[in-house]
Design brief:
Layout: H1 3-7, H2 22-41, E1 49-51, E2 54-57, E3 64-65, E4 67-71, E5 77-79, E6 85-88, E7 94-96, E8 101-104, E9 108-116, E10 119-127, H3 138-148, H4 175-183, H5 185-188, H6 200-206, H7 222-232, E11 245-251, E12 254-257, E13 262-264, E14 266-271, E15 276-278, E16 284-287, E17 293-295, E18 300-303, E19 307-315, E20 318-326, H8 343-354, H9 365-377, H10 383-391, H11 397-405, H12 409-422, H13 432-447, H14 452-460, E21 464-465, H15 473-477, H16 481-493, H17 512-522, E22 525-529, E23 540-544, E24 551-553, E25 558-560, H18 579-586, H19 594-607, H20 627-639, H21 648-653, H22 666-669
Parallel strand pairs: 2-10, 12-20
Antiparallel strand pairs: 1-4, 3-8, 4-5, 6-9, 7-8, 9-10, 11-14, 13-18, 14-15, 16-19, 17-18, 19-20, 21-23, 22-23, 24-25
Helix pairs in contact: 3-7, 8-20, 9-11, 12-13, 16-17, 19-20
Length: 690
C-alpha cells in the first residue's frame, strides 16, 4: 500500500475518509510492511532531519505536515516520514497523524517527538486559534479546490467557451467572475444553500450525477470538505479579501536519491499578512522528465531511471521547483578536485561530482584548434595554420590563437549573421536595400564591439526609415504590435509571452495584465510606405504617434498602463516615446531577464544547448541544469558592461572547451549529462566535436 492509498484513510484535517476503526490500523500496518524492506536497504548514515523544526498554526482547519529525512553513507537522500513515529506532549493543543500531519486543537504550545531510524528529534508547535471558527473562504479554499480538481483547466470549464454552459476562468485567473458563475448564474443552480450536499458543484465531480468530466474527487476528501463547507456557510463572497498569496516554497529544493525510491514534497504558501499555510495537499504537481521520476497528486515523488529532472509544484498560479538527481551508488567514485583558478570550471566540475562523473582530460592541440575555429569563425583551420600551431612551443599559444581569431573578418561574418537571424533580418519582410542596410549596421556593431546595452537600446528606440536609421528595420519586420512585443521579450529576455495574450500563461505567472502592459510600450508605433521610394516593394518607414493612449486589456475592458515584465508600472509623462523607458529598464540591472538570457544564449552557441533549454523559454518551471554556473556567467555580465563580443573569449578558453570528450561510457552516464555536455546523437563511444 503506497502513501496515496494511505492518504485515503487519513485526512489532513484529522477526519477519517475511508473505513473506520480497525481498517485504519490495518492500513498503517500494511503500509509499514510494504516499505520495510526498502528502508532496510537504505540505512541512514547521518542524523535525521525534520522539516520544519518549528510549526505555527493559526487556523483550526489548516494542519501542517512534517517531512523526516536522512542520508545514506554516499549522500543520497532517504525519506523516513512513512517509518517515523510521532507523539505530542500535549494532545489537548495539537495531535499528529501517523503520516506526520499536525492538527491544531486549542491555543497553546506543545512539543512533538519524532522517532526514526533509532534517532529522536523534537518539533516545537505554537497554536493560536481565533475565538470564532472562521468561515470557509471562496478565494483561499474554493479557488484552490477548483484548480486541484482540474475544474478550471483548459480541457474542462477553463476552456475559453466553457463546457456545457459552465465557464470558469482559466486556472483561477479571475476569482470575481468565477464567484458569479458559481453563486448567481442560471438562478443559482450550481449551489444549494438549503441542502449543500445536493449542489451540482459537488454532485457532478463526486459522480453522484452524470458528469462528462468524470469523477474528480471522492466523498470525504479534502476537496469535498472545502466545497461542502463553503456552501454550508452560505457561500460567502470574500473575493475582495486584501490578504493575497505572495509566494510558495517547496521542500526539499534539491535531492540526490536512488532509483525506485520515494520522497515526499512539502509545499508552503506565504501570504501578504505574513501568515503561512501548508498547501501540500492542494498543490498541482508535474515532473519535467517522467522517465526519471513521477509525482502523484499529493506531492509524493517516485524515482525511476537514472537522470535528473525538475518537479514543478503550482498553487494559485505561483510556481516552485524541486530538482531530483537519481543516481546508483558508486562506492568507487572519487570526486575530482574542484578548480579554483577558473570560476566556470569550478561550477562544471562541481556539477560533474554531483553526478558522479569524471571529467575528461584536455584535448590535444589539433582538436582544440579545429574546435575554436569552428566555434568562433565558422571555418576549419587550413593545413598551414594547423601545422604552425602544432609547432608553436609557447605555453599560452591557445589563448593567443583565440585572440587572433577575434581579429579576423570571418568572426564578424559569423556573429553578425547570428544576430541577423535573431533579429529576423530577411528580404521576406524588407526590400533588398533595407535588408542590406540593417545587415551592415549589425556588422559594424560587432566589428567595433559596441556595448550590448547600447546595441539593444539603439534598436528599440530607432525611428524613421532604414535609410535614416538602419536599426529601424527591426520594427519594419514586425507584422503588428503583438509581433513586436513577442519578438522583443523572446529575443532579449528569453521569455515567451504569446500565451498571455489570450489567457494566463500555463507554465509561468504571466497574465493578460503583463502582456498588455508590455503592449503599451509599443502601441505608439506604426509602419507605412516610404514615400521617398514609390514603387519599391516593402519600402517602409517607422512612425511614432506620441499621442496614442495605452492598450486595452480585452478581459477587463480597461486601459493597461505600461508595465515592465515582473509587475512594476513606471511613471511616464504624456506625449513621450514610451520605448525609451522600456529600453532603459531592459538593459539595466533591475531587469533579471536580459543578462540571464544573453549569457545562456551565448553558452548554447558553444555547447549545443543552453544551461536553460530552450534558450528562449526562461521560466520558473524550466530551471537551469546548473544554476551555479549560470549565476557565475551572470555575475560577469552584470558587474561589467558587456559588449557584442563579450563572452566568446572566456567560453572558448575555459577548460570545458578544451576537454577531450572521448570514449565516455554511456552506460555509466545513463543520460545524466544532458545540459552539461552536448547532446549525444546515438549510443556508442562518444566522439563529440573532435
Amino acid at each position: 500500500m503506497d502513501r496515496r492509498s494511505q492518504a485515503r484513510f487519513f485526512h489532513p484535517t484529522g477526519l477519517t475518509t475511508g473505513r473506520p476503526g480497525k481498517a485504519i490500523l490495518l492500513a498503517v500496518l500494511c503500509f509499514a510492511a510494504a516499505h520495510s524492506s526498502r528502508a532496510e536497504d537504505l540505512i541512514p548514515a547521518g542524523p535525521i532531519r525534520v522539516e520544519p523544526a518549528t510549526v505555527n498554526l493559526n487556523h483550526p482547519r489548516r494542519p501542517h505536515s512534517l517531512v523526516v529525512t536522512s542520508n545514506t553513507a554516499d549522500g543520497r537522500a532517504i525519506d523516513l516520514t512513512a517509518q517515523a513515529a510521532f507523539a505530542s506532549s500535549n494532545t489537548a493543543v495539537a495531535r499528529v497523524t501517523p503520516l506526520g500531519w499536525i492538527e491544531p486543537l486549542a491555543t497553546g504550545e506543545t512539543d512533538l517527538t519524532v522517532t526514526a531510524a533509532g534517532q529522536t528529534s523534537t518539533v516545537h508547535v505554537n497554536v493560536k486559534l481565533p475565538s470564532a471558527v472562521p468561515l470557509y473562504s471562496f478565494r483561499h479554499d474554493v479557488m484552490p479546490a477548483l484548480s486541484k480538481g482540474g475544474c478550471n483547466a483548459g480541457a474542462c470549464h477553463g476552456y475559453s467557451l466553457g463546457k456545457n454552459g459552465f465557464k470558469l476562468s482559466l486556472r483561477g485567473a479571475d476569482a470575481a467572475a468565477d464567484y458569479l458563475s458559481l453563486s448567481d448564474e442560471f438562478f443559482e443552480r450550481r449551489i444549494n444553500r438549503h441542502n449543500p450536499p445536493a449542489s451540482l458543484l459537488l454532485a457532478k465531480p463526486l459522480g453522484d450525477v452524470p458528469h462528462k468530466g468524470g469523477v474528480r474527487f471522492e466523498h470525504g476528501s479534502l476537496l469535498d470538505d472545502l466545497l461542502l463547507g463553503w456552501i454550508g456557510d452560505g457561500a460567502p463572497d470574500d473575493v475582495a479579501d486584501p490578504v493575497q498569496i505572495e509566494s510558495v516554497r517547496i521542500y526539499p529544493t534539491s535531492v540526490v536519491i536512488g532509483p525506485g525510491q520515494q520522497h515526499q514534497l512539502q509545499l508552503i504558501a506565504r501570504y501578504s499578512d505574513g501568515s503561512e499555510r501548508d498547501v501540500t495537499r492542494l498543490g498541482i504537481y508535474t515532473a519535467n522528465t517522467e522517465r526519471v521520476a513521477a509525482v502523484d497528486d499529493e506531492g509524493l515523488v517516485t524515482t525511476r531511471e537514472l537522470g535528473e529532472t525538475a518537479v514543478v509544484a503550482r498553487f494559485e498560479r505561483i510556481f516552485a521547483t524541486a530538482n531530483f538527481i537519481v543516481l546508483e551508488p558508486r562506492p568507487d567514485f572519487e570526486p575530482t578536485p574542484v578548480p579554483t583558478e577558473n570560476v566556470i570550471d569550478r561550477h562544471v566540475v562541481a556539477k560533474l561530482n554531483d553526478l558522479k562523473i569524471r571529467p575528461s582530460g584536455k584535448t590535444d592541440d589539433a582538436h582544440f584548434l579545429r574546435r575554436v575555429f569552428i566555434d568562433l569563425i565558422g571555418v576549419q583551420p587550413k593545413a598551414d595554420e594547423l601545422l604552425a600551431f602544432l609547432a608553436e612551443p609557447a605555453p599560452d599559444k591557445r589563448a593567443r590563437a583565440i585572440d587572433q581569431l577575434f581579429l579576423r573578418p570571418e568572426f564578424v561574418d559569423r556573429w553578425s549573421l547570428k544576430w541577423g537571424d535573431l533579429l529576423q533580418n530577411s528580404r521576406t519582410n524588407l526590400n533588398d536595400p533595407a535588408t542590406y542596410a540593417f545587415r551592415e549596421w549589425i556588422r559594424v556593431a560587432v566589428a567595433t564591439n559596441m556595448p550590448l546595452d547600447e546595441f539593444v537600446r539603439t534598436i528599440l528606440t530607432s525611428r524613421g526609415g532604414t535609410f535614416d536609421d538602419p536599426a529601424s528595420a527591426y520594427f519594419a519586420i514586425s507584422k503588428d504590435t503583438d509581433d513586436t512585443l513577442q519578438r522583443a521579450t523572446q529575443v532579449f529576455c528569453g521569455v515567451r509571452m504569446l500565451c498571455a495574450k489570450c489567457h494566463p500563461h500555463p507554465f509561468e505567472n504571466w497574465t493578460q495584465t503583463d502582456y498588455y502592459g508590455l503592449h503599451s510600450f509599443f502601441n505608439q508605433l506604426g509602419v507605412k510606405a516610404d514615400q521617398r521610394l514609390v514603387g519599391v516593394p516593402n519600402a517602409k518607414t517607422l512612425v511614432v504617434n506620441l499621442a496614442a493612449g495605452y492598450s486595452v486589456n480585452p478581459r477587463t475592458g480597461k486601459v493597461q498602463p505600461p508595465r515592465f515584465l515582473g509587475g512594476a508600472e513606471p511613471p511616464i509623462a504624456a506625449n513621450v516615446d514610451r520605448r525609451a523607458a522600456y529600453a532603459h529598464w531592459l538593459t539595466s540591472a533591475e531587469n533579471p531577464f536580459f543578462a540571464r538570457s544573453m549569457a545562456n544564449r551565448i553558452w548554447s552557441y558553444f555547447f549545443n544547448r543552453g544551461i536553460i533549454d530552450p534558450v528562449d523559454d526562461l521560466r520558473t518551471t524550466n530551471p537551469p541544469i546548473n544554476p551555479a554556473l549560470l549565476d557565475a556567467l551572470l555575475e560577469g555580465a552584470v558587474v561589467r558592461r558587456p559588449r557584442t563580443k563579450d563572452g566568446h573569449p572566456r567560453v572558448a578558453i575555459w577548460g570545458i572547451q578544451e576537454a577531450a570528450l572521448q570514449q565516455v561510457d554511456l552506460a555509466v552516464l545513463g543520460g545524466l549529462v544532458e545540459g552539461v555536455w552536448p547532446a549525444v546523437p546515438e549510443p556508442g563511444p562518444w566522439l563529440s566535436r573532435p
